[in-house]
Every structure is written in structure tokens, then in C-alpha cells.
Amino acid sequence: xxxxxxxxxxxxxxxxxxxxxxxxxxxxxxxxxxxxxxxxxxxxxxxxxxxxxxxxxxxxxxxxxxxxxxxxxxxxxxxxxxxxxxxxxxxxxxxxxxxxxxxxxxxxxxxxxxxxxxxxxxxxxxxxxxxxxxxxxxxxxxxxxxxxxxxxxxxxxxxxxxxxxxxxxxxxxxxxxxxxxxxxxxxxxxxxxxxxxxxxxxxxxxxxxxxxxxxxxxxxxxxxxxxxxxxxxxxxxxxxxxxxxxxxxxxxxxxxxxxxxxxxxxxxxxxxxxxxxxxxxxxxxxxxxxxxxxxxxxxxxxxxxxxxxxxxxxxxxxxxxxxxxxxxxxxxxxxxxxxxxxxxxxxxxxxxxxxxxxxxxxxxxxxxxxxxxxxxxxxxxxxxxxxxxxxxxxxxxxxxxxxxxxxxxxxxxxxxxxxxxxxxxxxxxxxxxxxxx
Length: 437
Description:
Blueprint: H1 9-17, E1 24-28, H2 35-48, E2 56-60, H3 71-79, E3 88-93, H4 101-111, E4 114-120, H5 128-134, E5 138-142, H6 148-154, E6 158-163, E7 169-174, E8 180-182, H7 183-193, H8 199-202, H9 206-232, H10 240-252, H11 260-269, H12 284-296, E9 300-307, E10 312-322, H13 325-332, H14 339-353, E11 357-363, E12 366-374, E13 377-386, H15 390-401, E14 408-415, E15 421-422, E16 425-429, H16 430-434
Parallel strand pairs: 1-4, 1-5, 2-3, 3-4, 9-11, 13-14, 14-16
Antiparallel strand pairs: 6-7, 7-8, 9-10, 11-12, 12-13, 15-16
Helix pairs in contact: 1-2, 3-4, 7-13
């Protein structure tokens, strides 16, 4: 199927910024988040800027054409297509499927005048073995599923701004057939179906979306975790049932303080039994290996706690967020009982998209949902469902009031109440913040 390529400018602009520089450009991220399309977008950009087609070599190692290819055959394939006297642009998709691929890539750098772009769905691609070969000579561009703004664009939905009767602005959503929707209604669809780009191909039909998400989930688990372990010869991740239980536990507890031992204890309580019927608690090392595999496949992201007063990261109790909220709904079913943590999940990944380093803040015995930092910019952010209740307002604002510096302090919610500022702490509509208002 020859699909229209949808723009992902946030990532394409990063690739363009590194075009014709020495580092190998490594695009990483969960399966099916758009890495292959990004390489195609970059190749198209090159052709639009005057690079000829025979200067571009594209290989997708998920294709049957390249199954069983060795590192040596990989090198020979590329060498036979190099145009002498021309700069070559090499695009290698899902490269981790080639054993000792790093030998070939390093040889390309040495032997040819080339600019190299690669993707991988597992952080093993950037492991110590890789860095031995290309230490300091690669740049990682981490790709995420669609933001809310990208979600609207992919589904041919446009934000329309009209003047309200009282002189303010009123936003609504219009589809390609001219139908109008409330912006919160569109956001509900995003919360329900998530941001995997492939959903745009099947439409916002729950049955079709669940089939698509099932395929993505199975591929991550089988190819990027179970198969990868076999290739590495590590054999640490050997129990698919335990892996699924850990996935469900983490998905059910996004945004909660979690320790590795608490995961093992909970699984034992839920009836993880040995052959003699005795409760079996997986060792901390086993659980950690499974969690690490999920982090390496970009299925979950871990966020550390930062002591604001002590100015240091804490080793205790991090939190985990899932790469795509649609996959979580596929795993756990659609429900509203933990909507606060779901909103946190959305905000966390939006901050990553905007280039922030993100940590949980701790000050005394209270917690700040996010400290977001980049260059000279820092923000302290609380996320809550609604600010209409006086008790909630006091709780969310008092945490931020304990911070004595002058950086921006925000409370993001779906119902921000009437006041847009409390002693310099801004109360902002979360959906408006997502669309850049």
C-alpha cells in the first residue's frame, strides 16, 4: 500500500539539522511509532533538495528481501550500490535484526563518503557493544507516538478558531467533511485510542483499533523482547506469562511510586504459583531484568525523583509511564477510574516531545508531578483532573508554593476554574496547553 506520508516535522527538523554531519543519526522508539516513515520523509527531503535517487540507499530489515543477511553480505550489498565520487545517503530501518551490524556501519563510515541514518525498536541498538564502535559518533533522536496536535492532523481534523459573543476565542474541530466537534470531544478520542500513527489508516473504529494495537503489542513482546533475548544469548526473559503480568502491573500503575520488590510481591499475591502450588515470588533480579527489557523496547519509560532542596536525584521509588495510552486501554480495557494518572502520562510525553528533561520533584514530604528542564528554562508542573474543588486547589497550589525560586509554576487540568493565576502560579487548561496555546 502506497500511503500518503504525513509530516512529522518535530523529528524531521532534527534529522535535517544533523544532515551531512559526521555522527550516525539513530532514530529510536517503540514499534510502529513512525520511524520508517521518518526515514522516507528524510529521503524525500534530500531528493527535493537536489540529491539524486541513486545517491540514496534504503534498506528495511523487516523485509523478507534482507532476511538472513549477514554483516558481510550487508557490506557487499551497500558497496555494490555506492556511486563513486558522490556522497551517499544510507538509510537502514530496524537494523538490530542484522548480527554484528555495527562492523558494517563502522566500515561504511571509513570506506565511503556517506551520511548514515538508522532506526531501531530497541535500546540494545545503543548498548555498550554499539558504543565501543561508534562512541561519540552517533546522535539519538527518540521518536514518540503522536502528540495530540499530530493526532488531529493525522485524522484530518483541523482546529478552527472563532470569536465568541463575549469577545473571546472559541475553538472547535472540523473534519474534512465539514462536521464540527468540540475540542474536548476530540481529546477524549485521543485518550481512548492513543497516538499510534497506524490508527489513522483504520479510522477511529474501536474494533479495528484494538486489532491494530494487539498487533503492535504482540510485535513488541515477541520481536523486541523475546526474540532479542535469544539473539543475545542472555536467556533472562524466558517466561512470557510473567512478562505479560509485569506489563499489566506497570500499565495498571502508571504514575504510581513503584519498587521492584513491590512488583514481585504483588505478582505472588495474585497467584503466581510454582508446580507444587506454593506461592512463588520472582527474585528482584528477575523482575528487574523484565522491567529493563520493557524499558529497552521503549514500551515504558522510567522517571526518577529529584530532591528540590537537596538538588540531587533520589534512588528510591521512581514512576513508570506507558509509551502509548491506547496500548494501555487495549491491555486493561477502557475505564475512567485513574484519569489523573492518564493525564500525567499525556503531559509527561508532551514534555519529552518539547525537549525537556523530566523528573518528579520532591520537596519536604510533598511531591511535584514534574520538574521540566532544558537549557535555561525550568518549569514546575502539577497535573489534576479538575481545579473546581477548593480542596484540590489548595492541595495542588500549596505544593508549588513550597518552591522558593522564580521559575514558572503551572497547574494543568481539564477544568481550570475561573482564576487563571494564584499568587503567580498559573492554572491552565490542559488541552489548550497541548495545542500550544
